[in-house]
């Protein structure tokens, strides 16, 4: 079954689904979207830091962590 057929099937049978299950699926998708946005934002910031030379050495990192 291709994605379009799956979507049609789900939409046609959604009224049969338990509301708890729908809420669970909704929360999973919402969290995935939020996580993706957060990771993209961090990647863009890291790229900008690299381009502007806002970097520190491994030794500096270890000092900050330990």
Describe this structure in words.
It is a single chain. With 66 residues, the chain is mostly helical. The chain has one domain. 80% of the residues lie in helices and 0% in strands. The protein is built from 3 helices and no strands. It has helices at residues 3-13, 19-52, 58-65. The longest helix has 34 residues, at 19-52. The protein is elongated, with a radius of gyration of 21 Å. The termini are far apart. The mean pLDDT is 91.
Number of helices: 3
Write down the overall geometry.
elongated
* Uncertain residue segments: none
Taking all Cα atoms into account, the compactness measure Rg is 21 Å
- Average pLDDT rating: 91
Strands, count: 0
Q: Percent range for helical residues? A: over 70%
Q: What does the main sheet amount to?
A: none
In short:
By secondary structure, this protein is an all-alpha fold. It has helices spanning 3-13, 19-52, 58-65.
């Amino acid at each position: 079954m291709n994605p379009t057929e799956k979507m049609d099937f789900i939409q046609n049978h959604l009224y049969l689904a338990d509301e708890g299950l729908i809420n669970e699926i909704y929360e999973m998708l919402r969290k995935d979207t939020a996580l993706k946005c957060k990771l993209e934002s961090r990647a863009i910031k890291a790229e900008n830091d690299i381009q502007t030379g806002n970097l520190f050495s491994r030794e500096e990192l270890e000092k900050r962590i330990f």
